Amino acid sequence: MRKLSEDREKQLRGWREASSRYKLRHPDRVRMFNRERGKRRLEYFREYSKRWRERNSELLEKNREKNKEYKREWTRQIKLKVLTHYSGNQPKCACCGEDKIEFLSIDHINGCGTKHSKRIGKTGSTFYRWLIQNNFPPEYRVLCINCNFAFGHFGYCPHQFSRVN
Ligand SMILES: [Zn+2]
Ligand SMILES: [Zn+2]
User: Fold this and answer.
1) Are 38 and 107 members of one domain?
2) Residues with a beta carbon under 5 angstroms from ion ligand 2
């Protein structure tokens, strides 16, 4: 047993040495060979995964739908959690009272919401997650898309004036 593995080792060492001698002598040929081999592998892999996708297209389609649905629901949950924290059990716009969750978003009270979210590089569900991870920083509020836009664009919301009058 021991003898056999020693022989085998010697044989392997021989091959390794021969191959490194070959590499030294013909670096171009080796490079070419490797490139060709890489190309062939890539082609094979592409072809293989294409066939796999074709064979499993129905399954993939179903999965994609399911994933989309799952992600949508997960985003909704995480958004609801954040909105509820900043606005109470029935989240609504701090300016006009709009309460449809699809219209609501989180606004930075000092008006630098976009700047801030740009700085931390987060929008959408990533931003909601960031808020949760940072224990809901206090300088945010819930606004609807209209009021959010007005504050962001004009620095005020027309609702403020209609309320005063
Ligand atoms: Zn509003
Ligand atoms: Zn408003």
Assistant:
1) no
2) 95-96, 147, 157, 159
Q: Residues 106, 127: contact at Cβ < 8 Å? A: yes
How much distance in Å is there from the Cα of 139 to the middle of ligand 1? 18
Ligand nearest the Cα of residue 87 is 1
How far does the centroid of ligand 2 lie from the alpha carbon of residue 162, in Å?
9
The string of pLDDT tens digits covering residues 62-110 is 999 999 999 999 999 999 999 999 999 999 999 999 999 999 999 988 7
The tally of domains found in the chain comes to: 2
Residues 76 and 6 in one domain: no
15: domain range? 2-55
Q: What's the predicted TM-score (pTM) here?
A: 0.59
Q: Answer yes or no: do 19 and 67 share one domain.
A: no
3-state secondary structure of 119: helix
Query: Which of left, alpha, beta for 14 (phi over 0: left; psi -120 to 50: alpha)?
Result: alpha
Helix (H) or strand (E) holding 101: none
Q: How far is the CA of 40 from the centre of ligand 1 (A)?
A: 59
Ligand 2 centroid distance, CA of 159 (Å): 4
Same domain (yes/no): 97, 142:
yes
